[in-house]
Write a structure and sequence with these properties.
The chain is mainly beta and 395 residues long. It is built from one helix and 25 strands. A hairpin with a 4-residue loop joins strand 21 (327-334) and strand 22 (339-343).
Amino acid sequence: MRIPAPASARLGAAVGMAGAAALAAVSLATPAQAATSVTQDRLTPTSMTAGTATTAKLTVHSTSCFTAKTLGVGVRDAAGDNLDFPGSHTNVRICPSGVSITTGSRTLPVGTYTEFGFWQDSAGTWHNLTSKTLKVTAAASSTPTATPTATPTATPTASSTPSTAAPIAGKSLTWSDEFNSPISWGSRWVGSTSSSYAYGTHNPNDNKLDWLDQNDVSVANGVATFTAQPSSHTLENGKQAWTTGMLTTEGSNEGFQVKTGDYVETRVKLPSAAGAWPALWTWKNGNGEIDSFEYHPDNPNLLELTNHVTSGQNYYTNASAVAPDSWVTIGTYYGANSVDWYVNGAKVYSDGSGVGANWSAYLILNLSISAGQYHPAPTSTSPITFSADYIRVYR
């Protein structure tokens, strides 16, 4: 997600996420590859019920046998935003006799979407197949409800202390920051540089306007506030940078790392301004990335949950729990065989892949600013903010 990968494109720049990159052609096919034609024979579903997790099924055939690096099902909303089905298949042998795949499941809000199969050739080029309309309707038995309202926006106070009860059986609180005192720069946190950024302080190749400045993280009344605003810095691509805040344990004196078997949880207030891109994630030695969440206000009710260490992705959609200017609690269990995600205390996704027995990585909580490639860039020069009540790790 955070450092450029030479030959991949991704949703919100998430490394290796094939579905998100389906519309981003990154190279031209070689003549041999171009001569191979792939036909989409069948694609389902053509309709879904809002709030009901559904898988997609895709059947294709080719004019001659070859191995596709990736085969999956893409979804775009009316604004062109990526809402692909998770669980794209890799190294798929496609022949004239045909092949079928079933993706992972996902939910979508009520609306009309564009759905299509896609595949990636050996050169890294993405090819979109025939598109069709996917309609998502409300459940027949559901009754109209009022538009979800945000959790009261009164700022949490220092009285929100860690619970002694572990959210995962057998786990107990081992590390936390309740943001009841000023940030412990250098000792616990670093905010001015990260190895996940190609230039240390900034990372324009990852579709970000960020320029890290630890002064853009402040604490008051038990809440850490991340603020981004236009700066005088110019990025390598010529765009104006925004200074913005990050908290990472990498490079701190403590050097705290989460590891296999840990559960991390944060309570955050999601932003509403265009361009905002907050996330809680992990990073180590150019890899180790587990995204507890990524959020973009243009997908107001959706959290991106991703395991980049092995594989796993879910676009969790829930209008009653996820909304701009609302508080939400998000947790992640780093299991050896499955990474599990929790929203407001309920498990919402298990990837069945895990991180392996010996995984460890540094924590990062930050507010990035989108440059406009996958999600809208800021539409004004007004400061953008994102807030966190706490970060807790149970072991």
